[in-house]
Automatic annotation (TrEMBL):
<keyword id="KW-0285">Flavoprotein</keyword>
<dbReference type="InterPro" id="IPR002938">
    <property type="entry name" value="FAD-bd"/>
</dbReference>
<dbReference type="GO" id="GO:0071949">
    <property type="term" value="F:FAD binding"/>
</dbReference>
<dbReference type="InterPro" id="IPR036188">
    <property type="entry name" value="FAD/NAD-bd_sf"/>
</dbReference>
<keyword id="KW-0274">FAD</keyword>
<protein>
    <submittedName>
        <fullName>4-hydroxybenzoate 3-monooxygenase</fullName>
        <ecNumber>1.14.13.2</ecNumber>
    </submittedName>
</protein>
<keyword id="KW-0560">Oxidoreductase</keyword>
<dbReference type="InterPro" id="IPR050641">
    <property type="entry name" value="RIFMO-like"/>
</dbReference>
<dbReference type="GO" id="GO:0018659">
    <property type="term" value="F:4-hydroxybenzoate 3-monooxygenase activity"/>
</dbReference>
<feature type="domain" description="FAD-binding">
    <location>
        <begin position="2"/>
        <end position="347"/>
    </location>
</feature>
<dbReference type="Pfam" id="PF01494">
    <property type="entry name" value="FAD_binding_3"/>
</dbReference>
Length: 399
């Protein structure tokens, strides 16, 4: 079959790109190896920058987000048992974030694409990309697990790889044509979900003597919390009692504040790394989202960078199909990478600031404490944190 844009991966970048292209009358096909139920059930973080919230609304996807999401106009830094609230709205001229889980964003995007006849193909397998340097690149795929049936071929004007760190898109590019910069961190996060009411109206980033803790939320009945841990830990190493006792210690305040506790029904250990692969274009193949870049979760940038990539690509494709101009397509990699590296810098900074590095000497520990002391006491430093957290301004969606 023929289409204009073939999209590999039904994550936030792929689905949003397909939806934005539809709004501009541009055809696309989305190929996803997992089932629809699987992608809608995978629970991920969901702090949406102001620009992502605006994009959801501009694309006609904001109704449920506004009803069920939690608008956070600030966040709390807790150090040494004392709180310092960072007021996003005041420091950024009215900008804020929305806590709305990634799987809910995906549900909204899938529903929107299917409601308008979008071509989403789930449960595909053995995807391969061909003729990427030609004007007619192709994608071939088979049935799930390769069992039976003929292999299908999709011929497109362009292919966009939104299939994550282990997908086929980046692997289809010759290794010598790519440069990868990576940083692995000596700590991980134990993430857990529990049945409890919210412990706080806003996220709490806390640093205790032995490490980091984060209080977040998913709904009025389900909460998400994280603990710094050894990246080699297994979820089974952490009993419920150990999780709650560690959270109580790291989140302790001088006035006796305690988190709301409840039954824990999910535990996951998350490794932490920063990774950027560039350029984000090779011939007629473009990379977006985790296929090109990964950030540690501390700065809440992963989903937002994926949405930013989709915004840039949709505008570039709209320019190409309306005017025949390839200027925005040619500029895509450099433009996207500028934002990616700014987000990487912020994510690295927040991660380094708020975690206790194993084996750190007294000098490193004192420098970390001094940095936190400066941040808490400086309006300029708080403004820089707020500006980066709510997201740097984005350009127009369309010309």
């Amino acid at each position: 079959m023929r289409t204009q844009v073939a999209i590999i991966g039904a994550g936030p970048a792929g689905l949003m790109l397909s939806h934005l292209l539809h709004l501009q009358g541009i055809e696309s096909v989305v190929l996803e190896r997992r089932s629809r139920d699987a992608i809608c059930a995978t629970i991920r973080a969901g702090v949406l920058e102001q620009g992502t919230v605006d994009l959801m609304c501009e694309a006609g996807l904001g109704d449920r987000m506004r009803r069920e999401g939690f608008r956070h106009e600030g966040t709390v830094l807790r150090v040494g048992g004392l709180d310092r609230r960072i007021d996003f709205v005041e420091l950024t001229g009215g900008r804020a974030v929305m806590v709305y889980a990634q799987h809910e964003v995906i549900k909204d995007l899938v529903d929107a694409r299917l409601a308008t006849g979008g071509d989403l193909r789930f449960d595909v397998a053995n995807v391969s990309l061909h003729d990427l340097a030609s004007l007619r690149p192709t994608v071939r795929y088979g049935d799930q697990n390769g069992a039976g049936g003929e292999r299908q071929t999709v011929q497109a004007d362009f292919i966009v790889g939104c299939d994550g760190t282990h997908g086929v898109s980046r692997a289809a590019i010759a290794p010598q044509a790519l440069q990868t910069a990576e940083r692995r961190y000596p700590y991980g996060w134990l993430g857990m979900l529990c049945k409890a009411p919210p412990s706080s109206n806003e996220l709490i980033y806390a640093l205790g003597d032995d490490g980091f803790a984060l209080v977040s939320t998913r709904s009025r009945e389900v909460q998400r919390m994280y603990l710094q841990c050894d990246p080699q830990d297994q979820a089974g190493d952490w009993s419920d009692d150990r999780i709650w006792s560690t959270l109580r210690a790291r989140l302790a305040t001088r006035d006796g504040w305690l988190p709301k506790e409840g039954a824990i029904f999910d535990k996951t250990v998350i490794g932490m790394r920063s990774r950027v692969t560039e350029p984000m274009r090779h011939g007629r193949l473009f990379l977006a989202g985790d296929a090109a870049h990964v950030v540690p979760p501390t700065g809440a940038k992963g989903l937002n960078l994926a949405m930013s990539d989709a915004r840039l690509l949709s505008r570039a494709f709209a320019r190409f199909y309306r005017q025949g101009g390839e200027d925005l397509l040619c500029a895509y990699s450099a433009t996207a990478l500028r934002r990616v590296w700014r987000a990487q810098r912020f994510s690295w900074w927040m991660t380094s600031l708020l975690h206790r590095a194993p084996g750190a000497d007294a000098f490193a520990r004192k420098l970390q404490d001094a940095e936190l002391d400066y941040l808490i006491g400086s309006r300029a430093a708080c403004t820089a944190l707020a500006e980066n957290y709510v997201g740097l301004p984005v350009g127009p969606l369309w010309d």
